[in-house]
Specification:
DNA polymerase, domain 1, Rossmann fold, 7 strands, 13 helices, single chain
């Protein structure tokens, strides 16, 4: 079972209340949504959205006991306008966005997120659309691959890895996670106790799912769908993500009024106990923003 990251901190900032309306835009297995539902009983309402239909079905089963207090939508969090349109909810009292991927996604070899078990190079959250990691690895030019691995994976061996990938695919199409991991390992040293292919796989996952583009699109709309008093909580796991969130929050807080207030001057990190119980939380960074007024259009 996936352990929700910074769960108590999320609830502490969001302060769910009875009859409040909330959005878990990355529902996963429903861990954060469950905590919000429990804290907002007996009549709080949570919209659970996820780009991964498999995770959404798991959340439905895990939250079955809450019945009509939940709605489930197969939507990418970037499409907030679609979520508003489908639910008829114009403003939420709280929104949670957890940008980490799920343990079940990593553990399923068929999803291609991990090289621990050999599987197809997919890496899509939404398996019904978009390019796969196999498409990217076998069709992108060497310079583009190097850019992705350097920028999203922050790997200093990016050029060497990209060159090795292009050389390997000339002999045969690269189709499996184990095959790609082997190519990367041959030309790159891991360091710091991680597998040499870890950063490349991270980079490809971010590129395949346009994770940074999704986040920017979400942040452009998030303030508009937050009710006065409502809180937006975002948990990121990558320095690039955290930087985007930090800059967007600052920009919103500078609006005249003021309309928005930053609740976390610095990102909130997991404590020692959580890190002992959940090693996946080690790179988590939480930031929170509250709408404190309507915009003055005078």
């Amino acid at each position: 079972m996936h352990i929700p990251v910074l769960l108590n901190t999320v609830i502490g900032y969001m302060k769910p209340r009875d009859r409040g309306t909330y959005l878990d835009a990355t529902a996963g297995e429903g861990g954060h949504a469950r905590a919000i539902l429990e804290a907002s009983g007996p009549a709080g309402y949570v919209v659970c959205s996820d780009a991964d239909s498999t995770m959404l079905e798991t959340a439905k089963k895990n939250l079955l006991e809450f019945g009509a207090r939940t709605t489930f939508l197969h939507e990418n969090y970037r499409d907030l306008d679609a979520i508003v349109r489908e639910t008829g909810i114009g403003r939420f009292d709280g929104i949670i966005l957890d940008l980490g991927f799920n343990s079940a996604q990593i553990g399923d070899a068929l999803r291609g997120f991990s090289f621990s078990n050999d599987g197809p190079l997919d890496m899509r959250y939404d398996t019904s659309a978009g390019m796969t990691a196999e498409d990217v690895v076998n069709t992108y030019g060497q310079e583009k691959l190097a850019q992705i691995i350097h920028e999203y994976g922050e790997d200093r061996h990016a050029r060497r890895i990209a060159k090795a990938i292009v050389a390997a695919r000339k002999k045969a199409r690269i189709c499996s996670t184990a095959e790609l991991a082997s190519i990367v390992a041959r030309v790159s040293g891991g360091g710091h106790g991680i597998h040499p292919a870890t950063r490349t796989f991270q980079a490809l996952r971010i590129a395949v799912n346009d994770e940074l583009g999704n986040l920017k699109a979400f942040l452009e709309k998030a303030g508009d769908v937050l009710a006065v008093g409502g809180v937006l909580v975002i948990i990121s796991f990558h320095s690039l993500e955290d930087r985007i969130v930090k800059q967007a929050f600052r920009q919103l807080a500078l609006l005249t009024g003021p309309v928005f207030k930053i609740l976390t001057r610095k990102p909130v990190l997991p404590g020692p106990e959580e890190l002992r119980n959940n090693t996946r939380a080690r790179s988590a960074r939480l930031r929170a923003l509250q709408r404190i007024a309507e915009e003055d259009h005078r």
